[in-house]
Amino acid sequence: MLVYTIVVDGTGIHTFKEKHCEHCLRREYKDKETGEKTKVIYMHHVLEAKLVVGDMVFSIATEFIENESEDVPKQDCELKAFKRLAKKIKSTFKRLPICLLGDSLYACEPVFDICEKNKWKYIFRFKEGRIESIATEFQAIKLLEENNKNNKNNKYENKEGGKFVWAPDIPYNDRRVNLLEAVLEKEDKEFLFITDIRITKRNAERLVQAGRSRWKIENEGFNHQKNGWHDIEHVNSHNYTAMKNHYLLVQIADILVQLYLNGAKILKGLKKSVKEKASDLLEAIRTRILTAEDLHQLGKPMQIRFT
Ligand SMILES: [Zn+2]
Question: If DSSP codes are grouped into helix, strand and coil, which group holds residue 73?
Fold first, then answer.
C-alpha cells in the first residue's frame, strides 16, 4: 500500500525584544535566585505539514502558532496548533492515505486519537520520558528478546550490521502501540520510534527510513527557507496579516524552486530548444494531470508494507 508521508513540525520564524502585536507568543525569563522576571521575548512560530517526495519537501498545510489575544490564560502551543492543522489536512485531503512523521512531542494520546479518527498511520520518534509506562514495557520486552536466543521473531539484522528490535502491541490506555528500535553501528546512530503500523522483518528497515525522513523538514525545509533561499526570518512588514501572507507565498515559491531545481536536471538532458521546452511545459501544465507514475519519477513517495 502506498502512503504519503507527511512530516509535521513547528519552528520559530520571528523573535522580538518588545511586544510586536497582540498575537505574539511570550517567553518569560526569571532570575533563578529571586524569581523576578528579568526579560520577556515575543515570538511568532509556525507549524508545518510537509509532504516528503524523494529529497523534496512540499508544504501542504500551515498553521500559525499564535495567541488569540494578549490576555489569554494559556498560550497557544504546537500541540494545540496541531489539532487545528489536522482538521485542515483532513478536510483538504479527505481520503489520502497518510502516514504522519513527527518528533517525540507527538507521541501522546490526543495525537494518537486524531490519527485513529482520521485513519492516518503514524511514526513518531519516542523518547523514554515521553510515556513512562510504554518505555518500561519496551525495555522489559527487549530484555526478554535478548535473553531468548532462539526467538528470532521480533528482530532483524540488515547486511550492514544494522540491528532492528521491536515490541508489538504494547498496551496504552485503550489502544496498543508498537515500538521499534534501530541500532545502526555503521552510522553510529540509534533510533526509537513509536508507530501504529504492524512491524515485520519485511518492513522494519523501511519504517526506520521513513521515520528518519522527518529530518528533511529541518534540512530541506526550514534550514533552506531560513538560511538559503527565502530568508523567512526577515521581517518584511510589521503588519501581522502581511507577515503571514508573505510566509504563505514563500511556501508556494519554495515548491516551484524545488520542482525547478529537481526538474532542471531532466530538462537539460532533453534534446530540444529552450523555446520548445517552454512550450511543451506550458502544454503539459495546461492539459496533463499528474499521475502516481509521475510522482514516482520525481522521487519516490514512501512505500510501506502493512503486512
Ligand atoms: Zn506579534
Answer: coil
Measure the CA–CA gap between 8 and 100, rounded to whole angstroms.
Answer: 7
CA 240 to centroid of ligand 1, rounded, Å: 6
- Identify the bridge partners of residue 101 per DSSP, sorted by sequence position: 7, 123
C-alpha 248 – ligand 1 centre gap (Å): 17
User: Is 217's pLDDT higher than 90?
Assistant: no
pLDDT grade for 242, boundaries at 50, 70 and 90: very high
Please, are residues 180 and 164 in contact by the beta-carbon 8 Å criterion? yes
Distance (Å, rounded) from C-alpha 305 to C-alpha 204?
9
Q: Which residues surround ligand 1, an ion (CB under 5 A)?
A: 20-21, 24
pLDDT given for residue 227 in this prediction: 72
- Give 36's DSSP letter: -
pLDDT at 279 (0 to 100) = 85
Residue 269 makes CB contacts below 8 A (sequence gap 6+) with none
- Ligand 1: centre distance to CA 111 (Å): 27
Distance from the alpha carbon of residue 92 to the mean position of ligand 1, in angstroms? 28
| Average pLDDT for 179-187 | 92
pTM (two decimals): 0.85
Cα-to-centroid distance, 182 and ligand 1 (Å): 41
pLDDT beyond 90 at 27:
yes
